[in-house]
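Quick check before the chapter quiz. The format below is the same one you will see on the exam, so make sure you can read both the input and the output lines.
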Amino acid sequence: MHILLGFLTSVITILYLLDRLGVDIGGLNPFAWARRRRFRNRYEGDPVYAVEDTMEIAALLIAGMARTDGDMTTEQKTAIERAFMTTFSMTERDAHQLLLSSTHLLGAPQVITTQLEGLLKRTADTFTRSQAQSVLSMVDELYPEPLSDTQAELRAIVRDKLQISEGPNTEWAR
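Here is the expected output.
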């Protein structure tokens, strides 16, 4: 026991002397280290993965399919905004803002497929049966059959991940 007390006394003395010499020993705190790590992951992480609301996830999916081949045309933007207004019961201004925020979050078109696949893996179970059906119907309505390869791949991912389960039948809520 006396050996353990001697060891602890010498460790504390060394840490105290290092602190008095100006060496920062705050990095040895495991709680501060974990907090810094969580903040760094949140700050440096992809903002798409921080989205939790099912309506915003659906908007990301719809806007992502339009952005896979480059920028959206004005016809695509107006069609998507109309779909948002009818499906989500939004005003024209809210639908426009939802589309703008979705396209801003998506960023580069080269990584949209991997972003949305990772987002769907994490959040597909949050969709109710009617929400999944409405997302799939919006995808079918907005993107008819002559699709590009990346759009067809993303459509297959959406269909695969949003398999309609027998959950409660609730509508979109804001």
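If your answer matched, good. The two ends are 64 Å apart (CA to CA).
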